[in-house]
Specification:
This protein has 8 helices and 9 strands. The chain is an alpha/beta fold. The chain has a single domain, classed as 3-Layer(aba) Sandwich (Rossmann fold). A 5-stranded parallel β-sheet has the order 4-5-6-3-9. Strands 1-2 form a two-stranded antiparallel ribbon. It is globular. The relative contact order is 0.16. The structure holds adenosine-5'-triphosphate (ATP) and magnesium ion. Magnesium ion (MG) binds next to helix 3. The site of magnesium ion has 5 residues, from helix 3.
Length: about 240
């Protein structure tokens, strides 16, 4: 598109080209079908409970402001924490989609699927070379890692997640992440009482290792979802 300004004619990308490019990025971003339409606009607030409404509205505003202000945010990334079915992945995808609409390249990965795919790529008998997956999560302009910590820990898992997070932290590449694991640093109650006595719950630090955990806090603003019934169960 050509524009006239102060007697000079200049060329700029027209909005339809930008939109076409964003649509292409979004369709190859790996966002699962269930969340392809997730947006801030279709994130509902509870109508019958003013306290719950205010708490969720405040979370929505925080994540929306992060996406609006990006990349001029105090922390480049955001970590959504809370119970299952409280809308973490919905909001994380809404943020990713709005960054894609702004022209950033976004990539979605479920944590467990990612680790399984990287592991397969190292297995010479698998016949499925997938080395690009590892490279793509290191280099993606914006990475969404969903369900962080949802994989049994082993030295290999700890090393892999530490490498990914360290690389992105050093390169100041943003990470959007979600987790439903408790963590003393989010103020979660880590004590669990059961028939066999009092135990400490498995937390995020244990699930991803202390080095990745430390960097995560350096890179991300932590947003806690308010306690709410599981949206999937349709109680709200
Ligand atoms: N406030 C909301 N408004 C509209 N849809 C919602 C809302 N909260 C959750 N949902 C929908 O409910 C389903 C479950 O939400 P989501 O997957 O975001 O939960 P989650 O917190 O990521 O859970 P988990 O910890 O199990 O991954 C999704 O289909 C999501 O779009
Ligand atoms: Mg989720």
């Amino acid at each position: 598109m050509y524009q006239e300004r102060d007697g000079l004619t200049s060329a700029s990308k027209c909005d339809c080209l930008k939109e076409g490019r964003a649509a292409e990025v979004e369709s190859s971003s790996g966002i699962p079908p269930l969340y392809r339409q997730s947006s801030f606009e279709n994130f509902n607030l509870p109508k019958d409970n003013p306290i719950a409404n205010r708490a969720l509205a405040s979370v929505l505003l925080t994540v929306r402001s992060y996406a609006r202000d990006f990349p001029n945010t105090d922390k480049r990334g955001i970590l959504l924490v809370g119970d299952p079915g409280t809308g973490k992945t919905h909001l994380a995808v809404a943020a990713l989609r709005s960054l894609i609409a702004k022209g950033f390249e976004g990539l979605f990965f479920d944590y467990k699927t990612l680790l399984d795919r990287i592991r397969t790529s190292y297995d010479p008998t698998s016949g499925q070379p997938d080395k690009e997956v590892y490279r793509s999560v290191l280099d993606a302009e914006v990475l969404l890692l969903d369900d962080l910590g949802a994989h049994r820990i082993s030295d290999w898992v700890e090393d892999t997640v530490t490498s990914i997070i360290t690389h992105r932290c050093n390169q100041q590449k943003p990470l959007i992440a979600t987790t439903n694991l408790p963590d003393a640093d989010f103020g979660s109650n880590m004590i669990e009482k059961s028939a066999i006595g009092v135990q400490t719950k498995r937390g995020l630090s244990e699930a991803i290792g202390s080095r990745a955990h430390s960097r995560l806090f350096e890179m991300c603003r932590v947003v806690r979802m308010p306690q709410a019934p599981d949206y999937r169960k349709g109680i709200r």
